[in-house]
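Response to reviewer comment R2.3. The reviewers asked that we include at least one raw input/output pair. We reproduce the pair for Peter Pan-like protein here without editing.
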Amino acid sequence: MARFKNRKKALAKPPVVKNQPSVDQITGQKIPKSFVFSRGKLPGPLKQLELDIRKLMLPHTALNLKEKKRNKLKDFLNVAGPMGVTHFLMLSNPKSIPHLRVARTPQGPTLNFEIQEYSLAADVARSQSRPSCPKELFNNSPLIVLSGFGSGGQHLKLTTIMFQNIFPAIDINTVKLSSCRRIVLLNYNNETKLIDFRHYSIRLQPVGVSKRIRKFVQKHEVPNLRNLQDVSDFVTKAGYGSESEADEESATVSLASDLGRVNRTSTKSAVRLQEIGPRMTLRLVKIEEGLCTGGVIFTEFGKEVDADPDEGEDD
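Raw output as returned:
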């Protein structure tokens, strides 16, 4: 009769979860954290937009947040408290019109935006000849810049406060330049009442240094000198030592500290922005006092707009 050996199955070790600090060690302020999720069924492109917004909100967001159809808003709220989540970003598609709700937890207010147009991060990358979006960009939160919001009423002031508090505050005296790798720009057009939402990466390039030399210093790679008569041709020959991009005086900065191998305090550096997406055009349609409920503080159309089909069951 065959004998069966008792083999103990090797148990997989549980993953180590690194808890992110709730308070900034330098500024002493509470670090805002977010959940990005959907309410109701979304078409494929909007579902991808949800994932793009999650990536934009890194590192203080739940990138792999699991959602189920039976989840209510209260389910997310119950988890948000213990995890220190301060904001919800909710995508929905009522009457086939994409909406984005940005809410402060646990008591609101809630800003309701209608997404007029949007482009996914992949669409932005395909439109560029040399797209670049390394993972290291998302190790730190983006900077936030708002333009055109100062000339409006109370609803624009609330919008400004909401977006300013959705990302960690920075101290210009102690911030490390190496951590400023991304920027989110929001521009309000007072005539069209639309908000342009853009997401860029930030690069610094030394002024007066050719692209070939810059790559050589950064990567420490031996250049191909096979077709050159002398090493000096690498610098002086046309196409090697010439500047590939014009540096405007308004786009140059003087660094307070060294940044990398080529950006030094003694030289000027040019600021380069490259869009990495997603891109959205938003219209503010309603502001509610509470978390997706309560009195209407502002409405664009002069009357209460149509509610999402799942709002009633969440409250």
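The CA atoms of residues 26 and 123 lie 37 Å apart. The longest strand covers residues 194-206. Further pairs are available on request from the corresponding author.
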